[in-house]
User: Fold Cytochrome C biogenesis protein transmembrane region family protein from Asticcacaulis biprosthecium C19.
Amino acid sequence: MGLAIAPVQAAEGKSAHIDARLISVSPSVPQGGDLMLALDYKAAPGWHTYWINAGDTGKAPTFTWSLPDGVTIGDAKFPVPKTIPTFGLMSYGYEGRTVLLLPLRNGSKLGAGEALPLKARVDMLVCEKICIPESFEVSLRLTVGTAAPGSDAKIIAKAEKALPKPAPFTGTIAVTDGVAEFGFAGKDLPSPQDAYFFVAQEKVVKAPAPQTVDTGAEGFAIRTEAQGALPEGDLTGVLKFKNGIAYDVKLTRAPLAPGVYGMGSAAGGAADTSFGGILLAALGALAGGMILNLMPCVFPVLSMKLLALSRAGHDQRLARTEALAYGGGVILSFLALAGLIVLARSFGAQVGWGFQLQSPYVTAALALVMLLVALNMSGVFSVGATLQRLGGEVQLDQKRPVLSAFLTGVLAVVVAAPCTAPFMGPAIGVALTQGGLSAVTIFLALGLGFALPFVALTFLIISVPAVARALPRPGPWMSWLQRGLSVLMYGAALWLIWVFAQQVTGLGLGLLIAAVVLIVAGLVIARLPSLARIAMVVTAVVVTAFAAAHALPPTSKATTVAPIDHIAFGMNQLTRLRAEGKPVLVDMTAAWCVTCKVNEVRVLYTPEVADAFKTTGTTYMVGDWTNQDPEISRYLTLFGRSGVPLYVYYGPNKAEPKVLPQMLDRGDIVKLLKAGK
Assistant:
């Protein structure tokens, strides 16, 4: 017969402002075994309790145990605290419900089935506008036996997840001229902006003093006001990031390492992952998605939309269905892209918005797709299941118009990747920082915004007869419009080939050009046998794969050829320039980033801006993210961004960095450089 496990018996504790109970993972504990207990308590609304180091004022909870012989309970494990400012003072502690973990070791000689009574007196300082010392007793009656999850196991499991994680990086501390300097070396960390360090020992720092972050090539530093000389003994603390991740850090006494400071705080760069921040990011994504329709990289696909709109008033049912199919293709593509990015980042890959164009395979494939669409629109060939249905006398896809509209939405998202509209950068930064449902929500909003203008305009044409009647009826003019708009697709194909040239060796570029020639010849030369034409196209696809395989080695950094004086980006070089007090404008760009190229032509490469760089002594530093570059990826992360463009101005005399808008204005840049702030 097996032993019956008795239900756990507990007595709740209560004081004027605290309700508490002692709970356990299991109602039984093996002889010589370990078990996790917890004090689960709740402070009255408006009242708070304290962490290990209470800050300016307060006191951590203390326990006085009554235990069977041989039973021991270790020190309480505290969840990550929060800052609680009160009347100009700063406390570290908790509000509302708190769970303190208490590890138990059963070293008693009690046998199986015997009772194991536990009792504790808990003393707490509970504060609102006044502080009141309060005491209460809690008890728990366990049995000796095989451990099995009890009714409170989930509460304790959740509390264990709320503990700060062991730090996978090193920490240092030093006090210089009354300033405490904490250094944290590590490259695979969350954005350090707005990070906060809770020192576990008292009288090390002044709790109300602000903590400032200074980033570096190898990590970051936090500076704040010290209370005096460092106390003897081990020094530890909890480093809390804005995204909620926290680490338990052991500190060694040493000055800041050169690589953990020097680039400034990048204030405001961290993604706001609060509920309000996520909601704001979703609204920004919605607006950014709508504006994305006006960005240059989407112009080629706009040709397909224009031709579809020209038919909307004359085949209303089909137009409505196609518009919804297009919207569905857009939204599902954005969600799929978000899933790929989040999955890749979960495996440690440094990828972001537009990451797919960092792959020569994707760039080459897109170049061929654009070429095929252009040839199709030019009337060189027709297929039964092409990417668009143009209607009228353009009989390209009468059989599958809905599928065609859906695929047009997919293609629109793919070609939109090189562009970043206003509001998109911070929104995507929040999505990729938070992940999960938040990322899905933000990318869904982005997709809705991108699809909304075309879908809404289609329904407007359908719903308002006057608008429908104003549209010209389908006819021969559509063939001419189709051929004229094909120029945009040819331009997109040539641009992607140019991007491909930045990613591969000369042999790889030559192979892609040969593949293009094979495709054009196979489709244009009508007198060739059908089998030969198919063989030429298939051969071109194989040759394209071989071309993409000739990518530049990972150690090769992409280089931007600019018509004005500039230097290549490097965090160590940026740190040296700032240490010398020189102003710097950092330009994070990529060959496939159309927004970047527009800013370069309209603003950065103009004589006025070049002259401002020269007269103010500002260093123009360019980071080329055409190919994967871990250093650039980390720099983007520091500012809560996941893609380019990113423009950051560092004023003279070590001024704090300033993030500039994604769409630049020539006059504003000249004014900024001359003002030096």
User: Anything to note?
Assistant: The longest helix spans residues 316-346. The radius of gyration is 32 Å. The chain has four domains: 9-162, 166-260, 275-362+383-478, 567-675. Residues 1-6, 383-397 have pLDDT under 50 and may be disordered.
